[in-house]
Structure formats: structure tokens, C-alpha cells
Design goal:
Structural class: alpha+beta
Strand content: 25-35%
Largest sheet: 11 strands, mixed
CATH architecture: Sandwich
Number of helices: 6
Radius of gyration: 15 Å
Bound molecules: fe (ii) ion
Oligomer: single chain
CATH superfamily: Jelly Rolls
Distance between the termini: 42 Å
Order of helices and strands: HHEHHHHEEEEEEEEEE
Amino acid sequence: MEKLFKNLKKEIYKLWEKNLVLSNFTKLPKDLIYNELQSNIIEPAKKLKTWKSNSAKTGKIHDIIRELIPYISWKQTYEEKDVGKSFLEKYGYFEFFGSTGHFLTKEMSLYVIFFDTNNFYTWHNHEADELYFVLSGSAKFESVGDKSEILTSMKTRFHKSFQPHSLTTYNEKCLSLVIWRDKLKSSIQVVKK
Ligand SMILES: [Fe+2]
């Protein structure tokens, strides 16, 4: 399985080489160490399993993630009291690069996050600067002080330190990369808008 994780890493490096928004946000470390994590399957990941990407540019990454589903250490982090039961039934993420990820680094964090259709990721913030990069599907991104917008494959959205933001899916699922470049240990607070 290590090979498939390394293939995903390779494709992400290729994406960085071709995409200035990603490479200007943060560099990818050269010294990532493969970390054998215990897999943790969650129900929502099964919805990702049956979803074929329609994006030519990110389809390969999407397909490797689908293949990796049973071997990934999926997380949810939030508690039902903060985000509601239906949110947790339609969401999941994993840390790919980071201090506890499938590849270890202390320089940045890269997560992969999945939302099923008709889901609302409530308003929250954190100290770390954040960049979303949509791999497949679409979602509406809202953040305080910025115009809301629907993002599709290859589009990015920046959230500055402590800027409250939320995400909504409608009739499409959404698979995204989420990158943090500093304050990697900052906690996420659910906030009232
Ligand atoms: Fe965020």
C-alpha cells in the first residue's frame, strides 16, 4: 500500500509544479517520511468510493484517493454537539502531509477533505493561513469580508488567519485539498458569524 500512497504524493508534487497559486502559497518539503498509519474507515468515505471524477486535470489524484480509501486514517475531529449529526454523516478528512499524517513533516500540513451533497460545514476559524484547492465537484465558499463563490475543480480559496469561513455543498459532492502553511498546531473554533 505504501506504493499507492507514494503515487499520490508524486501526483501532488506534479500538481504543485504546474500550479502557481499552490506553489506560491507554500513549498512542498523535500524530506517527507512515509508514516505507516493504522487505517480508519468511516461511513462517508464509502460515498467517495462510488464517485467518478469528471475533471481531466485532477482525475488521476481523485482516482488514487478512491483506491486508497480502505487504507486511509480517516478523521472527523468535530463533535456532534458542535456540528450536528447530519454533517458528520457527510464529511471526512485525512492528514496526508503533516506532523501526524501519512507522510511526516513539520513544515506544512496538507489535508484531503470530502463532503457529500447537500452538506453545510459550519462557520469556524483558526490561526493558520489556509488554502483550499478543489479537486472534484463543487462547493460554495463563504468567508467574512470576502464575496462568496462557487468553486469547481482547480479553483482555490484563501482564508487568512482567524478569518471565519464556511462551506456548503448542493447537488454535487466536493473533494478538496486543504493546505496550512504556519501555526500548524492551531485549533479550530466553531464561531457564530
Ligand atoms: Fe479552515
